[in-house]
Amino acid sequence: MQQKFVQLAAPGVRDLHPYQPGKPISELEREYGISGSVKLASNENPLGPGEAALAAIKKASQHIHLYPDGNGFYLKQALAKKHQVPVEAITLGNGSNEVIMLAAETFLTSQHEAIYSQHGFAAYPIAVQAVGATARVVPALGLDHPMRRGDDLNGFADRVTADTRLIFIANPNNPTGTWLEAQRLKDFVASMPAHVIVIIDQAYFEYNDGAVYGDASLWISEYPNLIVARSFSKAYGLAGLRIGYCLSHPDVASLMNRVRLAFNTNELAQAAALAALGAHDYLEKARQINAAGLTRFTDFCDAHKISYCPSMGNFLLIDVQGDALPVYERLLRKGIIVRPVGGYGLPESLRISIGLPEEMDRLMSALPEVLELG
Ligand SMILES: Cc1ncc(COP(=O)(O)O)c(C=O)c1O
Predict the structure, then answer these.
(1) Are the C-beta atoms of residues 39 and 351 closer than 8 Å to each other?
(2) DSSP, res 9
(3) In this structure, are 66 and 35 located in the same domain?
(4) Which residues, including other chains, have CB under 8 Å from residue 330's CB and lie 6 or more apart?
(5) Which of the ends of the chain has fewer CB neighbours closer than 10 A, N or C?
């Protein structure tokens, strides 16, 4: 008789849907027999890797027969200096995704609840469900709100109970690009009871250094129940190496370190991240390309009456007025990979990452046809 392994799985895992990453270029080209495709699907940095990071990787590769420094001494020193926090406040993760998982493993059980927004980043439901905790999902702001589909902080506050342990807020959020204004969010953190830990996920922070939505890393010393997550995958251009971190009260970091795997971040990633922190020109270029690309794309959408959510990320969530999958398919045939977001409860939207100017040209010349705009 066929064994039903699903019945053996932990209850939270049984109904879990795995994270759906953007389609890799190699897969598209294999399937459609095409070449020269562009990927605007995973909010990666279109600049490619920075020279300083590549040089650091080359140097560090001399040591890959050895285990990495499980504590990431040099990277943590640099991050502590950058953020003016003690080294003990830092937890390194295999991408910031891992620090999200670590927080869930550390603070949630089947007795506990976590809160996140309806269109919040996909890692939150996975983390909460995997540990068997209960999710309280806050309906997003409506389409008539200036921050359409954004997080409703009042809704978050309303859902806090004695069993709440974690609140996940991406600022700015993915896939919507929306954000919460700094003072409003800070007041919200201040208003939370001591048994509730707020995670402010700022994976896209470096694109605009918190203009409007604030640098939550500066709030860490004030609020012991705050975790701020950051990533090297976006503006720093190191998505493939998998490295991110969070800042928190040292006691929170110490607890998260108990569940962290000993060698969760590797030597090459640590070295590249350290180099990336000092590569100011690369970061500036990434910012400029993104800001210019985002402005161009929103102007294009305005001109073609395509509605979208306001974005502070390196992507834009557009509405296609109907099922987004055929539009996604038509773009694939033209060698352009974007991201359908039906899994986020947004079946009529596509999330499009901001690419290089020539990649945006290609996208914008394809869109009127695939959207069947008159
Ligand atoms: C809001 C948000 N948080 C976290 C992550 C995870 O990034 P990483 O694990 O690559 O650091 C992403 C990735 O897209 C994201 O959009």
Answers:
(1) no
(2) S
(3) no
(4) 369, 370
(5) N
Query: Which pLDDT tens digit goes with each residue over 36-59?
Result: 899 999 999 999 999 999 999 999
Q: Report the share of the chain in percent with pLDDT over 70.
A: 99
Ligand 1 atom closest to 239 (CA): 10
Whose C-alpha lies nearest to ligand 1, atom 13?
Answer: 203
How many domains is the chain partitioned into structurally?
A: 2
Q: Which residues contact 64 (CB under 8 A, 6 or more apart)?
A: 267, 268
**Residues 96 and 244 reside in one and the same domain:** yes
| Max Cα-Cα span within the chain | 62
pLDDT at site 1: 59
If DSSP states are collapsed to H, E and C, what string results for 174-193?
CCCCCCCCHHHHHHHHHHCC
Q: How far is the CA of 2 from the centre of ligand 1 (A)?
A: 38
**Residue 217 and residue 128 share a domain:** yes
- Please give the full DSSP string across 323-364, using - where no structure is assigned: -HHHHHHHHHHTTEE-EEEGGGTEEEEEEEE---HHHHHHHH
**Is residue 2 in a domain?**
no
- pLDDT digit string (tens) for 92-131? 999 999 999 999 999 999 999 999 999 999 999 999 999 9
Domain co-membership, 30 together with 155: no
> Is this model's pTM higher than 0.90 or not?
yes
The closest-lying atom of ligand 1 relative to the alpha carbon of residue 121 is 1
What is the Å distance from ligand 1's center to 369 Cα? Answer: 31
Ligand 1 centre to CA of 203 (Å) is: 6
Pocket of ligand 1 (CB under 6 A): 43, 95-97, 121, 170, 174, 201, 203, 231, 233, 239, 244
Q: Are 58 and 20 in a shared domain?
A: no
Domain that residue 316 falls in = 7-48+281-370
23 has a pLDDT exceeding 90? no
Find the 356 Cα to ligand 1 centroid distance in Å.
Answer: 21
Bridge partner list, 247:
90, 228
**From 44, 45, 102, 121, mutation site for ligand 1 pocket: most ligand atoms within 8 A of C-beta:** 121
